[in-house]
UniProtKB/TrEMBL annotation:
Ranges for domain Rieske: 56-141
KW Iron-sulfur (keyword) present: yes
Signal peptide: none
Domain of life: Bacteria
Taxonomic placement: Bacteria, Bacillati, Actinomycetota, Actinomycetes, Kitasatosporales
Matching InterPro entries: Rieske_2Fe-2S, Rieske_2Fe-2S_sf, Rieske_Fe-S_prot, Rieske_Fe-S_prot_C, TAT_signal
Name used for this protein in its record: Cytochrome bc1 complex Rieske iron-sulfur subunit
Presence of keyword Amino-acid biosynthesis: no
Length: 148
């Protein structure tokens, strides 16, 4: 684990490192942040065009765009949903996806990738959602949050 993998030093950082240490290589991708905690996705304030094309998000599944700190799902064909991939428990970037469920490797929180809802604690706050559109096959997320 490097200083860039976990939030700035705090009790949370210690917990993150402790939780990730047994996972060796997985630990390097388990935690987010680096120059601030928690780092919100750029989509909070500006439109972000994701790399690759929309077809990379499986129908009935989701994908984590780690660099952009975004989680994008496609619950039904052509229906995309985008959420912050910054775990609401401690600021780690979500690290795993299984169908429509995303997980945080730091302390085991799980989120519904179709709604952003917490499925498993310790996180208790749902993931913020952003508007997402498809333009020329590319996913564009944000700016700002999607309410309701
Ligand atoms: S940071 Fe603790 S579960 Fe994600």
């Amino acid at each position: 684990m490097t200083e860039h993998d976990c939030p700035r030093p705090s009790r949370r950082t210690l917990l993150c490192g402790a939780a990730a240490a047994p996972l060796a290589g997985l630990a390097l991708t388990a935690c987010g942040g680096g120059d601030g905690w928690p780092r919100s996705p750029e989509a909070e304030t500006q439109a972000v065009t994701l790399g690759g094309d929309a077809g990379e998000v499986p129908v009935g599944g989701a994908r984590i765009y780690r660099e952009d700190r975004l989680l994008v799902s496609q619950p039904k064909k052509g229906e995309f949903r985008a959420f912050s991939a910054v775990c609401t428990h401690g600021g780690c970037v979500l690290s795993s996806v299984r169908e429509l469920e995303a997980g945080c490797g730091c302390h085991g929180s799980r989120f519904d990738a179709a709604s952003g809802a917490v499925l498993k604690t310790p996180a208790t706050v749902d993931l913020p959602e952003y508007p997402v559109t498809v333009s020329e096959g590319r996913l564009i997320v944000g700016p700002g949050r999607r309410e309701g």
